[in-house]
TrEMBL record, chain B:
InterPro entries in alphabetical order: ABC2_TM (IPR013525), Nod_factor_ABC_transporter (IPR051784)
Keyword Membrane: yes
Annotated compartments: Membrane
Protein's name in the database: Transporter
Keywords: Membrane, Transmembrane, Transmembrane helix
TM ranges: 47-67, 79-101, 122-151, 157-180, 240-265
Domain called ABC-2 type transporter transmembrane: residue spans: 46-233
Membrane topology: Multi-pass membrane protein
Pfam annotation, one family: ABC2_membrane
Native organism: Streptomyces albospinus
Amino acid sequence: MPVCAVRDLVKTYPALRGRRGAAQAPAVRASDGITLDVRRGEIFGLLGPNGAGKSTLVRQLTGLLRPDSGSISVLGHDLVRHPERAARLLGYLGQESTALDELTVALAVETTGRLRGLGTREARAERDAVIDELGLADLAGRALKKLSGGQRRLACFATALIGERPLLVLDEPTTGMDPVARRAVWAAVDRRRAERGATVLLVTHNVLEAESVLDRVAVIDRGRVIACDTPGGLKEMVGEEVRLELVWRDRPPLDVPEVAALGAAARTSGRRWTLRLPADEARSAVAAVTAGPAFAALDDFTLATPSLEDVYLALGGRAEGLVKA
Amino acid sequence: MSVVPAQAVAGAGPRPDDGRAAPLAPRARLLPALAAVYRAQLSRARVARIPLLFVATFQSVGIMVLLRGVVSGGDPARSVVSGSAVLVVAFVALNLLAQYFGQLRAGGGLDHYATLPVPPAAVVLGAAGAYASFTVPGTVVTAVVGCLLFQLPMAHLWVLAAVVPLSGAALSGLGAALGLLAPRQELATLCGQLGMSAALLLGVLPAGRMPEAIGWARDLLPSTYGVEALAHSFAPRPDWFAVCADLGVCAAVGVLSLAVATWAYRRAAAR
Ligand SMILES: Nc1ncnc2c1ncn2[C@@H]1O[C@H](COP(=O)(O)OP(=O)(O)O)[C@@H](O)[C@H]1O
Ligand SMILES: [Mg+2]
């Protein structure tokens, strides 16, 4: 039995009547017949550009929004009929954090734990554990709104973890985060999957993230699932190569043999090298340029997965809005 | 024995609520959840609202100083002092809470609570309680300063211990309901401010000289009964029956307005 089963989900936001002179906003069919299954222990992603309908879909899965029609079953519970059960089945990280903004990180996490039904002692113990796990100890006493965007996001992620749930629903969890914070998120997600069999459903518009952390991806466009497979499976639809872009500070360190080898295969434009490589070679190339003297000379790099993007385009999606970083 | 696969029986779709449904995690119970919300809200209020509490207190003390030239002793002085003291409660509990819930709703902050298994009453009562108790220092300062300014007896200021929570409940319930029901955030802020202006005009200005219609409005405003209870207690020989009656009305209105606020929260959270 899938952890989360969605059938023919339809949700239309009604047209907004324009005020004197203002144009009328038309009705938006934000979920247009969505069907998907998330299996137990899976890290399942929803990928699509802004406005594709990802948040609308997860807000229906978390009982926040009532679908017009269709069915949602989470862990065997009918959430269309009993939306209030969602809070007792899953942990949710929304895109907003206004409820917690003025609290300290520690208090935000502890309070959320209490409200998820933990006792005082449990809540404190779990609070400390989660804060440690995510490397938030130094920020624990600071108010969320005094943190950087990425730090605040990480603190909100901590609130989604406290008070264990078998399913985590995360809406763009890593937005604005630096690589260290991102790694902390993925490690925490992975640990919950490996040690406790948790299932994770997450939203992203980041192609690289989708490529590297997801077991399966549903590609969403205009409220429809236009493809659903493993990242590898989707990639095979359009070939197996990935695109690596390297930007050097001034001159590439050609004295590093790996870099010299890459240079031979690269298309160069100014300080930018563009390479098309099989995924495993790209991975070792990234490893080579993110270490030692090569890293010192590196200004920026992106490992793009043109295949996912190309899948997306080939299936009729719009390109703008997908992030490749 | 039937060996029809479950899939075939269930049809193509999933079968919700079948026997294998996972157990539900327990709900947060009302009192612990209320305590947690209260604590969090109090800490929020401490960080963000102390300057506003100063403003509220300053405003009330300023009004009393202004009116000292006009009013001298007797009934009017009592109602000026008690009206100004309760005005602090109105400023924080009605105005700021309406603003807060309006903001929370507009910014999607309610989603956080709505996706936790917490009773709606805990969220509303916790926030209302925190805002109301946050007004205590300002109310006490205002009442003491007022007593000194108008030479009123301070012997029965302990009545504040009932007036603040009861009018706090009534006003913060009203504030929360306004914030949650207003179709837009700006309207929530506006309503809160109008409510506070009403508390100012109807509570502080002596009632005797008002036109009848305004007297009716005054009777409808929940803070009025807190003001009257406190005013009675400044009398040389307080009429305790009247004090209790006013506090009773205050309590009833408090229960009612908190119930409305809870209903409004449910409505706002389950869009
Ligand atoms: N509350 C709302 N009212 C009206 N339209 C909305 C609302 N929320 C989202 N939409 C519209 O629905 C579509 C999908 O939005 P959303 O689910 O937020 O997309 P995503 O999360 O993929 O960026 C967009 O066109 C958006 O403008
Ligand atoms: Mg979104």
